Amino acid sequence: MLNNDLRMSGKAGEHDRRDGHAPGNRFLGRVVACSGSRATIAAVAEQGGTDLTELWSVGRLISISVGRNRVVALVYSMNTGSHAWGEGEDNTFRIETELLGEVRVDEDGREEFSTGISRYPYLGAIAHRIRAADLMRIYDAGTGTTAVIGKLTQDESIDAAIHIPSMLSKHFAVVGSTGVGKSTAVSLLLHKAIVADPKLRVLILDPHNEFAAAFPQHAVTIDTDTLDLPFWLMRLEEFAEVVFRGRPPVPEELDMLRDIMPEAKRAFRGSDNSLVRRTAEKSSITADTPVPYRMADLLALIDERIGRLEGRAEKPFLRSLKMRLIAAINDPRYHFMFSNNTISDTITDTIAQIFRIPGDNRPICTFQLAGIPSEVVNSVASVLCRMAFEVALWSDGAIHMLVVCEEAHRYIPSDPTLGFVPTRQAIARIAKEGRKYGVSLGIITQRPGELDQTILSQCSTLFAMRLANDRDQEIIRSAIPNSSISTTSFISSIGNGEAIAFGEAISVPMRMRFSRVDEHLLPKAASANSKHSEEDPDTVDLRKIVTRMRAVTVGPDISNFQQSVAASMASLDEAETAGEDLDATPYASPAPTASTPLESYRRELLPQAPRLDPAESAPIDPRLDALRRELRREEPVFPRPAPPTDQPPVTRREPGTSLRESILKKPLSSLYNKD
After folding, report:
1. Measured CA distances, 347 to 95, 110, 333, 362, 394 (Å)
2. Pairing mode of beta strands 498-503, 126-129
3. Which of 149, 235, 336, 557 falls 20 to 30 Å from 469 in CA-CA distance?
C-alpha cells in the first residue's frame, strides 16, 4: 500500500471542537511548569467527577495552544497532589508531558508539523485534546512511497504509516520478547517493501524454518536438500571453521591450508605448463579467491608433501589436516558443500538461485538454517552476507539487496570474544557501508542487550515490541532520541502486536498496532504444519527420527534377516546337542511373528569350507614325495592300526562341516603323534 491508502477517517467532531467549557469539549488543563523538553499541566476534576480524567492516559498525545501554533506533547506520568481522591470534592492533579514538536500555521493558512519548537508554552497556556487532522499530519511519513502497516493505539481511525525508502536505505530492527509477534511484523514489513521497490531482492537467514509459509507466492525456499553451496566459495577462515568444526584452528595446519589451496586452484585450471603457471601467478590466486578446485587435488598435494624427505616436523600436522579434510568430506551433513554438483564452476547458478537474479516474480529467498550443522552455520551466514554485499556492489545499483537476520544475536553478539569473526565483519560491513551501494540490513532479535551495539546503532528505524528485561529496555532507551525518552516507560506493558516505532521512517515516535496478517500468510515452522498428524507418541517411528538426526541415507533394513539367522543358529546348536541328523532332517524355519515377519533361513547362505577332491589331496608325484622324505631323513608313515574298542572311533571330517567343527569332534589324542 502507498500513501493514497491513508484514510482521512478522523472526523471534525468531538476531537476538533473548540467551544469554551461545554460538555465534551477539548479543554483539559493549563500549563503550570515548562522546561526545554517537558511541561507540567494542572487540571481539576470538579466534584469528584471522572469525565475529565478519562481523557488522560499514559502514552497519548495532547496539544498546547501557543498563539497560532499548537505544541504537541506526549503524556508519560500523572498524579494527584494529595495522592488521594476526594469524593464529591474538587480534585487537582498534575500531568507530566514531553514536548515532541509543533503544528505551524503559515500566513496563507497552510499547516505543517515540525519536530522543532519555535515558541514554547507559557504558564497558563491551554492544553487540549489533539485534533485528528493533526494526528494524521504528524504521522504522515511522506508521499509516494508511504506504506500503511497498522493503526495508532491512541486513535485506531488513524493509519500508522512508514516511509519505505528511509527504512531500507538506513537499515531497520525489530526487537521484542518471544511470542509478541516479531516474525509476523517482519513478514508484513517485507510484503510492503517488495511492493514499494520492484528492484528489491530479499535474503532471509531463517534459523527456525518459519518464513517459507509467510511468502508462498513471492519466495523460494533453500534448505539442505536443495542447496549446493560450493566449498570453494568460502574464504580461508570460513573453510577452516568447517574443517575444525567450530574450534580454534591449529596455526600450523591453517598455514598449510593457506599454502596448498592456491596450488589446488591452479591445478584445477590446468596450469601445468610454465607459461600458464606464470600467468596464473601474476593473477594472484590466493586461498580467498572464489575459484573452483577439487578436494582430490588438495589431498594429493598434502600426500605429496608428506612423501617428501625434508620437512619431518610438519608431517604430523599434514596427516592431522588430511584426516580432518577426509572426515568433513565423508560427513553426510556436509553433502551440500562437497557433493558432485559443487566441483564445477557453478558460482553463476548459485548466485542466481540464492539472490533471485532474475527473480521470476519471486524476489524473496528464505535460506533455512535449521538443517545445517551448528558448526557450519556461522560459515554459511558469513558467505551469504559477504556475497550479498559484493553482488550489490558490482551491480552498479541495478540490484537493491536486503539481508534479514533472524536471531541476530547469534551472529553479532555484544561480546567480541564470542561469535564468528568473518560473520561479524560481513554484517558490520553491510551496516556501515551498505546504504552507499544499495544493501540494506534487517535485524530481528529478542535480546537487544546481547547484540553488538555498534551494529544496532546503525539501524535508524526501530520497532520496539514488548521487552521485559531491564537491560534490553535500557538499550532501546539509549537508542531513542532524547526528546522522546519517556516512550520506553511503558514498553514492558504493551500488548502483543503493538510496538513503539521511531526513527528515520517515522517522523514522530508512535505507539501503534500492526495490521493483522491472513492466517495462510503467518510465519510458522515446518513442524507446525503437521500438528494435526494422525501419529502420536505411541505410534511414531523412532527409527525414522534417528535416521534424520544422523543425516544418513536410508538403506535396506536387514534387522529381520539378522534375527532369522540368529534364531537359526540357536536351533542348530540345540540340534547338535541332541545328536540329531541335520542332513537327514530338513531344517524348518521358525514361525514368524505377526509383528515382525522373519525371512526363511537358507543353509547355503552360511559360509562353508571348500570341499577338496581326494585326487587333489594326494601328492602330485610319488617319487617327489619319497625324495623329500629321504632328504629330511624321515621314516615313511604307515597307517595306524585301528584303535581299541574302548576308545571312541576317530571320525573323518564330515562333508559340509568346517575344519574347526571337525577338529572339535575328534579326540585330543588323535591330534598329535605319540611316538
Report:
1. 63, 57, 21, 20, 15
2. unpaired
3. 149
**Cell numbers found for residue 90:** 474538587
Q: Of 553, 620, 532, 534, nearest to 225 (Cα)? A: 553
- pLDDT: which is higher, 239 or 559: 239
pLDDT in tens, 601-620: 455 544 555 554 444 444 44
Q: Which among 84, 83, 40 has a CA at the least distance from the CA of 62?
A: 40
Q: Please state which of the ranges 92-96, 469-473, 503-507, 664-668 shows the lowest mean pLDDT.
A: 664-668
CA distances (Å), 393 to each of 398, 445, 624, 664, in order?
Answer: 9, 27, 88, 81
User: Which pairing describes strands 200-206 and 400-406: parallel, antiparallel, or unpaired?
Assistant: parallel
Start-to-end CA distance of the chain, whole Å, equals: 109
Write down the pLDDT at residue 185.
92
| Exposure string over 121-132, b if 16+ CB within 10 A, otherwise e | beeebbbbbbbb
Q: Three-class SS of residue 543? A: helix
Q: Tell me how far CA of residue 666 lies from CA of 60, 611, 640, 670, in angstroms.
A: 103, 19, 16, 7
Please say if the pLDDT value at position 269 is more than 90.
no
For residues 144 and 165, give the distance between their C-alpha atoms in angstroms, rounded to a whole number. Answer: 10
Please report, for residues 83, 170, 297, 416, 455, the alpha-carbon distance to residue 500 in angstroms, rounded to integers and kept in the order given.
Answer: 30, 18, 56, 29, 20
Higher per-residue pLDDT: 309 or 297:
297
In this prediction, residue 278 carries a pLDDT of: 52
* Residue 1: per-residue pLDDT: 38
